[in-house]
Amino acid sequence: MFGRDPWGGTLEISNADSATDDDRSRDLDRGAMMRHQLDETQQSWLLAGPGDQAGKKKKKYVDIGCMVIDRKIFMWTVGLILGVGLFVGFVMMIVKLVPHKKPPPPPPDQYTLALHKALMFFNAQRSGHLPKHNGVSWRGNSGMKDGLSDSTVKKSLVGGFYDAGDAIKFNYPMAWSMTMLSWTVIEYRAKYEAIGELDHVKEIIKWGTDYMLKTFNSSADTIDRIVAQVGVGDTSKGPMPNDHYCWMRPEDIDYKRPVIECHSCSDLAAEMAAALAAASIVFKDSKAYSDKLVHGAKALYKFGRLQRGRYSPNGSDQSLFYNSTSYWDEFVWGGAWMYFATGNTSYLTIATAPGMAKHAGAFWIGSPNYGVFTWDDKLPGSQVLLSRLRLFLSPGYPYEEILRTFHNQTDNVMCSYLPVFNSFNFTKGW
């Protein structure tokens, strides 16, 4: 099929192929004449001189996938894009760095302002070594010898909060205040955070709980006494220096401040247990401190249950200012908070015992103070707290009966607050 040898034959010169140079030249000219004429492109490659267009350097191209474009055009385009990007970025940087007048934020609503001022009140009432950021310029360190100046106690009771215009530290209403502040944080943590007061209110609570941990042996499982009060206010015994006879700045107090302890004070113990238990939920992100609060709360509630009695016996200094009428409502209140803090159902069993509710006045509907939640009567708050438990968790038997009763009574109390029922007197307001 192929007439020629693909190898081309040997390189030796045979006698039969001994033609002269002239003969070979004539054969080459004849072969050239027989070939086709070169086309114009081929001729330009071979014949073009150094100055001709066809002899210039060959163009380079860039293949970008979807098309092939001239390399020079491609480089100019990329450079232009980068230049524009750098210019825009430079302009934006200048715009951001140049100071601008921002519109003032909208003024806070009235409730936010009221909350700011209410929390600032606690800053003003602080006792002890004040932090630099306390925010009340006219207050300084005070009560730095509390507890140490009393020879019967001889331990530091520095800290806590003064009660009002005087410099007495009443632990009973102070503990209730810390319980209530903790409850507001548990329920409305996001609201506090939204107005920038979450850290502030937690600091206030910790100021109170740190002090309360000093008022008893908080590291023990069983205790036999609690500090009920620092300072006295009874002026009926004549002109002797105390916190009501001598009205002065706490920073200027130079007289000894006696410490009052109690050995059977169920109301105070259960209220302090409630305060520490509620605060342990607030500080649950700090496990060591939360556990410390729970441990102290357990010791207090145990002490209150074992050593029955009111913290303010008749004729005592406590009874003149913050007299406690009963300790049964504190058993319900403290038991509820202990359950929320620990999950131990034995506390819920105490808080929902029908006999406990009866002693606390849950069924005394005709009481003039029924439904009034105060530092002395914790029953209305306990009923709300346990109604919340029924609504969200519904623990069922054996707690359901009393929880349903508390829930119904809470509904009635809430309705009684409405002006249409005329159960309470209302101020005109704004």
Automatic annotation (TrEMBL):
Its EC number is 3.2.1.4. Pfam families: Glyco_hydro_9 (PF00759). Residues 111-428 form the Glycoside hydrolase family domain. One of its GO terms (molecular function) is cellulase activity. Residues 1-26 are annotated as: Disordered. It is an enzyme of class 3 (hydrolase). The keyword Lipid metabolism does not apply. This is cellulase. It comes from Aegilops tauschii subsp. strangulata (Goatgrass).
